[in-house]
Structure formats: C-alpha cells, structure tokens
Amino acid sequence: MTALLDRRPTTVKGPVPVRRTRRIPKHWLYLAPALILLITFTYVPVGNMVWYSFHKWDGLDPVMDPVGWDNYVRVFTDERYWHVFLISLYYFVASFAQIAIALYFAVVLSFSTRFRNLFKGILFFPYLLNGVAVGFVFLYLFQPGGTLDSVLSAVGLGDQARLWLGDPDIANISLAGTSVWRFTGLSFVLFLGAIQSIPNEIYEAADLDGANRWHQFRYIIAPGIRRIISLSFILAISGSLAVFEIPFIMTGGANGTRTFVIQAYETAFQFRQIGLASAMAVVLLLIVLLITWIQRRLIPDDEVSLS
C-alpha cells in the first residue's frame, strides 16, 4: 500500500511546444492607411458610379429604377452627348504644343544657362495657381475691351480684336490656349527631372566625340526620357477628354465650348439624371483606359539603354 502511495507521476523531459501566433506583416501596416483611403475614395465611388449607371435616379429618391443598358444606349445614340467629344480635339491638339514647349525649355534649361532658376520658377508658377483663379484671370484677359484687346490696340493691331470667348470659331482656341499656359509647367518639371537624371558622364563623352546640342538631344536626351514622353502623351489624352475647370469658369459651356465633363455635370446636377451622368462617366473612363492600353501596346515601356 505504501508503495502505491509513493508512486508519483514522472515528468517527461523534452522541448516544450511553443504556441505561435500569426503576425500581420509589417509592410501591410504601412500600406493600410493608403489602401483604406484609396479604396474608400476611389474604388468604392467608382463601384457606386457603375451601379448608378444601370438605374434611373434623380439623386434624392430613395428608390432607384433599374433600366439596364438604356443609359449607355442613350449616350451613344443621342447627338447631344457624343458630339461634345469633338470639343476635346481642340485641347488634344493644344496638348502637343504644350509638350513641345515644355520639352524645349526643359532641354535648354538643363544646360548651363544664365538665370535658369528664375526661368524654371516662371514656367512652373502657373501650375501652382488654382484653376478657378486662372479662369477668372483669363476671363478678364479675353473679355471685349479687356487686356488682350488693349495690348493689340497699343501695338497697332486693334483691328484684330475679336470676341475671343463669344465667337464659336475661336472660343475653343482661346480656352485651349489658356489650358496650355496653365499645364505647361507640369510637363516642364517632368521633362526636366528626367533629363537631370541622365549621368553627366554621358554628356562629357559626347562632348569629347564632338557632339553638338542637337546630337545630344537626339541620341542621349530623347531615348533617356522616352518613358516620360510616353507618360506625357497619356496625360495629354486623358486631360483633353476630362477638361472641366477652365471652360466651365470662363464660358459655362456656352458658344460651343461645352465639353463632355460639363455635359455630364449639367446632366447630373441640373437635370437630376444621376444614372445617365454616371453612364457618361463610365464611358469616359473606359475610353481613357482603352487609349492608354493602345498607347502602351504601340510604345512598349521597355528598358532604355544609353550605352
């Protein structure tokens, strides 16, 4: 009996299993705030926009009536909605002038030039201004008897004064010129940063080989900034299709200056057709994505070698 009472449980010696808890990778903790903001303010609104585009809704009624593809059919069959796409051609052509001007000054100011920091600030300053402020400034510039007409009269060209915003034949040209003035600074900074990232040793080797500025641009700068040039074309296409601020502030879409975005805005907030306006926005998004895809297929984003 005593032997039975003296028996004690034996302990087994060995490694004690450790219970591991799964930890969230640290990189997700850093990405979480940006992902939350991106999903909340980009992807969720886009999803809602697609959902609205299949309904008839005035934005206030708690009930939305499903209409299927009727809104999209109306966008493509009603001349009022697709004809305004032609207005974007003015801004699209102007964007090429914007890219050419920005590229020219970026190349010139990337070399040793007097007062180049001053010129850099002058070129980039318009992009820092608010779009509404730019619209009002150029509204006074183009108004009858305004600054532009006064300058033309001062140099003896008063007979060339026009209704810069009232004549449908030149109103869009005036607005496109305003857009060029405002956004040239953005393209300039992109080009200048790309040019300055090219190693100086390449320029020095080109100088030793007797290359002039044109040869350096053709064989060094242009291949080296090909990606930025491609990006500029993508921004030009998407920007020309999504023009809103300048024509809305300066003309309100009158005199044949109504763009697709202004048409969508009026459809949504003046005529209370949220479903139709959402369909217009979806169509615009798909067009931009399609053009971007075609551009990337035609101009592949390959590695650029300067060696």
Automatic annotation (TrEMBL):
Subcellular location, principal: membrane
Subcellular location: Cell membrane
Domain ABC transmembrane type-1: 84-295
Transmembrane segments: 28-54, 81-109, 121-142, 173-195, 228-250, 270-294
Highest taxon, organism lineage: Bacteria
Annotated protein name in UniProt: Sugar ABC transporter permease
Membrane topology (UniProt): Multi-pass membrane protein
Family statement drawn from the similarity comment of this UniProt entry: Belongs to the binding-protein-dependent transport system permease family.
PANTHER family reported in the protein's UniProt record: BLR7065 PROTEIN, INTEGRAL MEMBRANE SUGAR TRANSPORT PROTEIN
Record keywords, A-Z: Cell membrane, Membrane, Transmembrane, Transmembrane helix, Transport
Native organism: Paractinoplanes ovalisporus
InterPro entries registered for this protein in UniProt: MetI-like, MetI-like_sf
